[in-house]
Specification:
- By secondary structure, the protein is α/β, with parallel strands linked by helices.
- It has 2 domains: about 40-190 and about 355-425, D-Maltodextrin-Binding Protein, domain 2; about 190-355 and about 435-485, D-Maltodextrin-Binding Protein, domain 2.
- The chain contains 21 helices and 13 strands.
- Strands 1, 2, 3, 4, 7 and 13 form a 6-stranded mixed beta sheet that branches.
- α10 (about 215-230) runs parallel beside α13.
Length: about 500
């Protein structure tokens, strides 16, 4: 049986001390299975006139020449969010050592912050105390917050300055960090939700062990069959899933093109489609076919731990956990792990699964030579072989199509075909503002608002329609308060 508690795959406590869904690296999952932006005052406030189209119209220059003219070795600090003791951290350390050994102009100092939450909090503190990195790995939901800090050099500037080609990238991953017509950051460790299931449990339940559910309706049927045969489904309460189900229906989460045409000002997810999603999930839980577990605390990973104990036959979680979960569950004779795509709302709707994960930002508050060096290092981490090495060592998605043609990924996918699923999701379906994911200033708090409403549905009997209306009202208030704190009406 798998033992342990703590860990890491996705949710953690947000900075208000309430349950949030900021996603870490898969750091703690290894330890556990084996044994938002709340400081708004720390952001540099800006006006509505300084946002939006002005960002695209007046990009700062990328100081690439400063690196060439710099004397000696340029030292840069990279704040990363992987644990140095797990596979993700070790793979990143190996890549960084390779970069440092490949040339003598730049030396990268890895500074581990252990989690995305820690990195973002320290970055916000650095806006006041001046202690900022040269390049930083921040989570997807921190994008608007870091833009609002006005402390980054948009990588679009360096793309233009170096004629850097992006056509080889998985476009939906690139699109997440593209707002106001500007590529704000370079995607790096990208993931999305997938189905983890036990083929032995499927066989016992009379289900085809090679055919995981591909729609929400089929997920419900399979969960019922699993429960009848003695297991059931583990269901983590993660509001990221609502965003993803809406994306598969090509529907927006917030207004203004999901916050991509202009700053998001209100929720738009309170629709008949969302009611349909939550009604299905409410039925799934109320029937007993799925058992929920919280996104923080000692039961945080019960949905995954239960796969090894035989409690569950199926769950949904991040592909970022794939490497760790696969290696550990492989040793349990009662588990034959299967991986399936996220079960879309409807196979007839041309939507898509949105990306999650993190990206690399270049700090504009450091000397120009360091900015240029940070771009060089970002290019290296997103190179074809680096992305292949990173994906094979961690379970994250290879972001370049050329990386999938390397011997590294070919061998990985031939041996572990489940690692290909998350990649296929990002190259399938439509790439739209809905499927690229939302950009919201107080995203951690917004997810807390949605989670609170979802829990009221499961635990207090609030109807799905009423819970969604409550979530939308709370989200609107959260966004309004955040925007007003920045002087935006």
């Amino acid at each position: 049986m798998i033992t342990g508690t703590a860990p890491a795959g996705r949710p953690i406590e947000d900075t208000r001390g309430k349950v949030g869904t900021k996603r870490m690296s898969s750091t703690g999952i290894l330890r556990s299975l084996a044994a938002g932006a709340t400081a708004v005052a720390s952001l540099v406030a800006w006006s509505a006139a300084g946002a939006g189209s002005a960002a695209a119209a007046g990009l700062p220059s990328c100081p690439v020449s400063a690196l060439r003219s710099a004397k000696g070795t340029v030292q840069i600090n990279f704040w990363e969010s992987m644990s140095p003791t797990d596979a993700n951290g070790k793979t990143l350390a190996s890549l960084t050592a390779k970069f440092n050994a490949s040339q003598s102009k730049i030396h990268v100092n890895l500074v581990s912050q252990s989690s995305y939450d820690d990195t973002w909090q320290k970055y916000q503190a650095g806006l006041s105390n001046g202690q900022l990195p040269d390049v930083v790995q921040l989570e997807d939901i921190d994008q608007q917050g870091v833009i609002d800090s006005r402390s980054i050099l948009p990588v679009q500037s360096c793309i233009r300055a170096t004629h850097y080609a992006t056509s080889d990238f998985v476009q939906r991953a690139l699109a997440y960090w593209h707002t106001d017509g500007v590529q704000q950051a370079m995607p790096f460790s990208v993931s999305n939700p997938i189905v983890y299931y036990n083929k032995q449990s499927f066989t016992k339940a009379g289900l085809n062990p090679n055919t995981p559910p591909t729609t929400l309706a089929q997920l419900m049927k399979d969960a019922a069959a699993l429960k009848a045969s003695g297991t059931g489904m583990g269901f983590k309460l993660d509001p990221w899933h609502l965003e993803t189900w809406l994306a598969t229906a090509n529907q927006l989460f917030v207004n203004n093109g999901n916050g991509r045409n202009a700053r998001a000002t209100k929720a738009v997810f309170d629709t008949k489609t969302a009611v349909k999603i939550w009604t299905a999930l409410d039925q799934l839980v109320r029937s007993g076919d799925a058992t929920t577990n919280p996104s923080t605390g000692t039961d945080e990973f019960d949905n995954l731990l239960g796969m090894g104990s035989g409690k569950y036959g199926m769950t949904i979680d991040s592909s970022a956990d794939l490497g760790t979960v696969t290696s550990l569950l492989h040793s349990y004779p009662n588990v034959t792990l299967g991986i399936g795509p996220f079960p879309v709302l409807s196979a007839s709707i041309r939507g898509g699964v949105e990306p999650g994960g993190s990206a690399l930002y270049i700090c504009s508050k450091v000397p120009k030579a360091q900015q240029a060096a940070a771009w060089d290092f970002s290019e290296f981490l997103d190179s074809t072989q680096s992305q292949a090495t990173w994906a094979a060592g961690t379970g994250y998605i290879p972001l370049r199509m050329s990386a999938t043609r390397t011997p590294t990924i070919k061998s990985l996918w031939a041996t572990n075909p489940g690692f290909k699923v998350a990649y296929q999701q990002l190259v399938s379906g439509a790439t739209t503002k809905a499927t690229s994911g939302a950009v919201i200033g107080p995203f951690p708090q917004v997810r807390t608002d949605v989670l609170n409403a979802e829990e009221s549905m499961y635990q207090q009997g609030v109807s799905p329609a009423a819970a969604l209306k409550s979530a939308a009202r709370a989200v609107n208030a959260t966004i309004s308060q955040y925007n007003q704190s920045l002087g935006i009406g």
